[in-house]
Design brief:
The protein is about 35% helix and about 20% strand. It is α+β, with helices and mostly antiparallel strands and about 270 residues long. It has two domains: about 90 residues, Arc Repressor Mutant, subunit A (Orthogonal Bundle), CATH 1.10.10.10; about 190 residues, no CATH class. The strands form three sheets. A five-stranded mixed β-sheet has the order 4-7-8-9-10, sandwiched between helices. It has a three-stranded antiparallel β-sheet with strand order 1-3-2. A two-stranded antiparallel sheet has the order 5-6. The longest helix has 15 residues. The chain is globular and about 55 Å long.
Length: about 270
């Protein structure tokens, strides 16, 4: 006998939809999204996990549990997005983007009409390319693959303001090479679809490099740089490596990164350090 399909409530969709837009969200981020306690958020995620719609587990020992959508959850949404892959090297970055996305939705970045994630931009451009249409989101960086395909850069978030302007948001936790960053700045300089670029830099050195490349590209007036607090992302402090061993590393026997004793400052409800 074929089992009856799992009924989905609006409450379920309010969790599955946002999870589809990210590689993962932490339980605290889901709690903020739903305006509930962490315990309630975890309970809802566990219920979805029982139906095979999401996975809930810590990515690194000692750090908050994370949740990501499974293929079955994407099918339930009829989403064109692929199942996300958790990249351990991008853990801090992905946690930070989750907080920025929540902050943007809450109005912390101004009055907005739309907030689009990198995952969404990439899949829509891939669909456009398959149909022979120009990309709607990615900016060309003047580099081509071995197959002759132009490589494109995508910001972490793309905001459309109430006034209709497009603002690219870049969370810059590690320093890009001068050549790569210069190509990105040149691409922004030549793309009239992006009105402003907001860089959130982890260190003064990264901030200075971003400002310098923006000046060289002639778009210093369009590129805005803000410095994050050293341990400015709740659940993924900038100033230290993830705790001891990742769950994936433990399963595979991989070596663990070192632990730091850096203390974390007090944070607001949006997960960013004050």
């Amino acid at each position: 006998m074929t089992p009856s399909p799992t009924p989905f409530t609006d409450r379920d969709l309010s969790v599955l939809g946002p999870l589809a837009e990210h590689r993962f969200l932490t339980v605290a981020q889901v709690a903020l999204l739903l305006a509930v306690s962490d315990r309630t958020a975890l309970r809802r995620l566990r219920a979805l996990e029982q139906h095979g719609l999401v996975a809930v587990r810590p990515v690194f020992h000692g750090l908050p549990r994370a949740a990501w959508i499974e293929r079955r959850g994407l099918r339930a949404l009829e989403s064109p997005l692929a199942a996300p892959q958790v990249n351990l090297n991008e853990y801090r970055h992905d946690v930070g983007v989750g907080w920025l996305w929540l902050a943007a939705r809450a109005g912390a970045l101004g009055e907005l009409r739309e907030v689009t994630t990198e995952r969404r931009m990439q899949v829509e451009d891939a669909a456009a390319a398959a149909a022979g249409d120009p990309p709607a989101w990615g900016i060309g960086v003047g580099v081509f693959s071995s197959h002759g395909t132009p490589q494109r850069h995508y910001p972490d978030l793309l905001l459309r303001t109430a006034a209709g302007h497009r603002v690219a948001v870049e969370l810059e936790l590690t320093a890009k090479s001068a050549g790569r960053l210069g190509r990105i700045m040149a691409a922004y300089a030549g793309d009239a679809r992006v009105d402003h670029v907001l860089y959130l830099a982890a260190t003064p050195a990264i901030a200075a490099r971003v400002r310098g490349e923006a000046r060289r590209a002639g778009i210093a007036d369009r590129v805005h740089v803000q410095l994050l607090a050293r341990d400015g992302i709740a659940g993924a402090a900038i100033g230290r490596a993830p705790a001891a061993r990742s769950v994936a590393a433990e399963r595979s026997g991989a070596a663990a990164p070192g632990r730091s004793r850096t203390a974390s400052p007090a944070r607001g409800r949006d997960g960013l350090a004050r």
